[in-house]
Amino acid sequence: MVNKDKPDSLTKLGTASSAAVRQYLQAALDYGIDSSTALQACDIDPGVLDNSVPRISGNQFQSLIHWLVLQVDDDCFGLKSANYVEPGSYSLLGYMAMSCRTLEEVLNKVPEYEAIVGDMGTTFFEQNSDQHIMSWHCLYPDSVVRPHMISNVLGSWLNFSRRLADLRNARPEQVLLEFDCSSQNTRNHYEQVFEAPVVFNAGKNSLIFSSSVLNTPLHQPDPQLTAALEQQAIALLKQVQDNPIINQVRKVLTNMITEGLPRRERVAEQLGITERTLQRRLHDAGSGYQQLLDELRLDTAKRWLTSDSLSINEIASRLGFSEAASFHRRFKCWTGITPGEFRSSFVSSD
Fold first, then answer.
1. Ordered domains of the chain (ranges, CATH)
2. SS (H, E, C) the chain
3. Residue 242 burial by Cβ neighbours in a 10 Å radius (0-12, 13-18, 19+)
4. For 299-335, what is each residue's pLDDT tens digit?
5. In whole angstroms, what is the distance from residue 200 CA to residue 218 CA?
6. For residues 152 and 168, which has the higher predicted lDDT (pLDDT)?
7. Could you give the CA distance from residue 66 to residue 72 in angstroms, rounded to a whole number?
8. pLDDT at position 2
9. pTM value?
10. For the segment 3-52, what is each residue's pLDDT rounded down to a tens digit?
11. Half-sphere exposure (Cβ direction) of 104: Cα atoms closer than 13 Å
12. Which of 52, 63, 318, 334 could form a cystine bridge with 47, CB 3.0-4.6 A?
């Protein structure tokens, strides 16, 4: 069980749109939980209900979901909340999706503009001749919250895609989830919703589709509207992000870190710029490559430490430290506590 009182300095969770918050609150009504009561319990401005408060902090959002999960006491709460997805749930990105030509065009816009919805995680794709794999990495460390947020995101993707293209009978070939399944009834419910085999403890969170599904035309394609909404999305991103180049580098690093310690020249190549240009743009933004890499190493270390799937020695090696002692020293320098102490804060005393 997660320690709810861990300091905010250990979790940099950005922000979340009020639209994303309202999806969970709508689902909570099915359990008899009033939205105002939930917001008051978590000290969140009720303006999120009418969008007079357009965004809340990520720490507030994580606390709200944690509180709701404990109240509903249902392992399928996150998945059930996906039933309430609508264009507004994705803010401007949702309306942009409705005007795209194909499902593939929609999915290609998600990684670029998902920060409009919030900083909950990062989307990335893999594709081969037969399959398209859409994966999501959750940035929230709370082990109570993560399974529900992951289920909400993947379930919402599927439900919204089906509505966009009238793919009522479309189903993934397989669903991969990083967390464990608590019971056979829960497993049955997941497989019923996704209409596909679900693999738990898979180490990643992915929907695997046949590539042919992505060519499905959408109901109301409007390229001119898409272009206009995209310009609005770019402007909105500038308001919610601290700096475009910093966030671009963070996204690339996040996608590459699982393959080993990313090299600066590879990141520049992914962004289509030279290494020197990358250095200059980061310097102009008041940052640097090593600073961003260290921030990612810290965030990744904390994420892996909240799971028992990797030992501390394995985490040190994957993050490019030559020995575990170096990782211990660096982590304590970053956070003031050791990796073992951080991991123990996420484990119930019983």
1. 11-215 (3.90.1520.10), 243-344 (1.10.10.60)
2. CCCCCCCHHHCCCCEEEHHHHHHHHHHHHCCCCCHHHHHHHCCCCHHHCCCCCCEEEHHHHHHHHHHHHHHHCCCCHHHHHHHHCCHHHHCHHHHHHHCCCEHHHHHHHHHHHHHHCECCEEEEEEECCCEEEEEEEECCCCCCCHHHHHHHHHHHHHHHHHHHHCCCCCCCCEEECCCCCCCHHHHHHHHHHHCCCEECCCCCCEEEEEHHHHHCECCCCCHHHHHHHHHHHHHHHHHHCCCHHHHHHHHHHHHHHHHCCCCHHHHHHHHCCCHHHHHHHHHHCCCCHHHHHHHHHHHHHHHHHCCCCCCHHHHHHHCCCCCHHHHHHHHHHHHCCCHHHHHHCCCCCC
3. exposed
4. 788 778 876 678 999 998 888 888 889 999 988 888 7
5. 31
6. 152
7. 10
8. 35
9. 0.68
10. 333 333 334 577 888 999 999 999 999 999 999 999 999 999 999 998 88
11. 13
12. 52
Structure tokens at 144: 């109570």
Place of tokens 């600073």: 291
Q: Look up tokens 């999915």; give the residue.
A: 107
Residue with tokens 């793919």: 167
Q: Would you state the structure tokens that stand for residue 350, as one six-digit string? A: 């019983």
Q: Read off the tokens for 244.
A: 């475009």
